[in-house]
Amino acid sequence: MTKKILITGADGFIGSHLVDNQLARGNRVRALDLHNHYLAALNGMPNLEVITGDFTNPELAKQLVEGIDTVYHLASAHLDVSLPDEHYRAVNVDGTLNLVNAAHQTGVRRFVHCSSVGVIGDVQTPPADETTPCHPTNIYEQTKWAGEQAALIFAKETGFELVVARPAWVYGPRCPRTQKLFRSISKGRFVFFGNGANLRHPIYISDAVRGLELCAETMGSLGEVFILAGEKPVTATELANTIATTLGVAAPSIHLPLSLGSLIGYGIEMVFKLLGRRPPFSARSVDFFQKDNAYNIRKAKEKLGFEALVSLEEGLAKSRESIFRRNT
Question: Is 144 a catalytic residue?
Answer without folding.
Answer: yes
